[in-house]
Backbone:
């Protein structure tokens, strides 16, 4: 039994007189460097260290290196942030972020307004009158691979273009998207009316409805053309 | 016996054992006061055991928070077996710290915004000196036997009494006093050796 009953005398208070019936305990009477006064002093020292209010007082010996280090450790771990009672208010960083957002949006709208995005947006607007088209610099001919999707402006020399014989597309339908001015080509291509395979068969340009152009954007994907191609390469042709 | 809001002050002054008994019964005010009372001890203990990671106590504070949550979760199952409630709390804390040490990683450290106002905390030189001394204390504590290191941390950092520390470690109060005396003497000797070297 190593526990001391509550009524038993404290061996630290009465060194040299172990309680009757107690087993041999290696402390404190058999420990040469721990008499009761030293034990009490150490206990009070640790209590003072634990009670950090006395950390700077004279109760702690300043010349004791162990006490100095333990005091530094206690001070280092004692900075505990209090638990907030309620959620914190909007931090001031939010205001700064808002102003930054406004500035960024302004810069973004300026950049996009002067670039090809604005030109793409203009394609949804009603077409200008033919006179205005004739006066305005026309874009260069469109390469076949970039024709519908290219958003780049036309920095190169432009040739005035005659008004298109095709009737203007209805402005209320967003599918009637007019290709924007395309990239310049080093070698000018023939006009659009003779470029596609449908035109080679002598179809008038008005037969190509804007719906086909809007959904596919490429003349080779015309449903009728696809059907003819499949029939030409089908098993019946091999026979 | 549930407590009303008007009795909060009296509950705050009540003994930890009484608070524990009320908290086990599910009294929300007693639970709040109990956690408010044990949280600083747990935070200091976790900080002393785990130390700083990248100069911050985020890992230790997270572990302390996990300890508090675990105490809250285990509170309905707590049975008073004659040992102080602190032994129950620090038993949980020891397990949580062991888990954290096993899965210790160098995690990213969140940083706060730069302060807009004056900082009342100690200056850089004082802060660095305190960090160095605290780290030196941790290094010396790691050279102590495990039971002595645990004893010193519970007595000095967690602020437990000799009786409470003995209950946590399974020792008598007298054995705690002798062991702490030996631990302090050993720390003193090691610190002097280091300063001489």
Residues:
């Amino acid at each position: 039994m190593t526990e001391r009953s509550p009524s038993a005398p404290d061996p630290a208070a009465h060194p040299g007189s172990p309680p009757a019936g107690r087993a041999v305990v290696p402390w404190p009477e058999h420990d040469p460097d721990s008499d009761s006064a030293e034990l009490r002093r150490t206990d009070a020292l640790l209590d003072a260290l634990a009670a950090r209010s006395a950390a700077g007082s004279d109760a702690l010996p300043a010349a004791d290196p162990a006490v100095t280090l333990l005091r530094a450790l206690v001070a280092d771990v004692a900075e505990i942030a209090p638990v907030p009672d309620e959620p914190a208010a909007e931090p001031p960083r939010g205001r700064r972020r808002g102003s930054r957002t406004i500035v960024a949006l302004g810069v973004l709208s300026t950049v996009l307004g002067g670039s090809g995005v604005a030109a793409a947006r203009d394609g949804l607007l009603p077409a200008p009158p033919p006179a205005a088209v004739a006066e305005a610099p026309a874009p260069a001919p469109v390469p076949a691979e970039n024709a519908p999707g290219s958003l780049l402006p036309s920095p190169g020399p432009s040739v005035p273009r005659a008004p298109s014989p095709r009737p203007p597309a209805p402005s209320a339908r967003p599918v009637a998207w007019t290709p924007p001015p395309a990239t310049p080509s080093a070698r000018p291509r023939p006009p659009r009316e003779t470029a596609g395979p449908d035109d080679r068969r002598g179809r008038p340009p008005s037969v190509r409805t804007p719906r086909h152009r809007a959904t596919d954007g490429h003349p080779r994907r015309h449903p009728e053309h696809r059907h003819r191609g499949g029939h030409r390469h089908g098993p019946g042709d091999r026979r | 016996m549930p407590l009303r809001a008007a009795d909060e002050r009296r509950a705050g002054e009540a003994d930890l054992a009484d608070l524990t008994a009320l908290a086990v019964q599910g009294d929300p005010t007693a639970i709040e006061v109990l956690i408010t009372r044990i949280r600083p001890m747990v935070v200091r203990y976790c900080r002393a055991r785990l130390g700083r990671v990248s100069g911050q106590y985020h890992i230790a504070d997270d572990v302390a928070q996990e300890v508090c949550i675990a105490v809250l979760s285990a509170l309905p199952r707590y049975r008073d077996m004659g040992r102080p409630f602190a032994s129950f709390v620090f038993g949980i804390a020891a397990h949580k710290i062991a888990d954290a040490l096993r899965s210790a990683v160098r995690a990213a450290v969140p940083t706060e915004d730069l302060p807009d106002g004056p900082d009342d905390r100690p200056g850089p030189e004082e802060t660095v000196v305190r960090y160095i001394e605290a780290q030196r204390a941790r290094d010396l504590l790691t050279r102590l036997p495990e039971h002595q290191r645990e004893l010193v941390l519970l007595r000095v950092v967690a602020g437990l009494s000799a009786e409470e520390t003995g209950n946590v470690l399974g020792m008598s109060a007298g054995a705690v006093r002798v062991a702490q005396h030996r631990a302090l003497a050993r720390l003193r000797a090691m610190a002097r050796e280091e300063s001489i070297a």
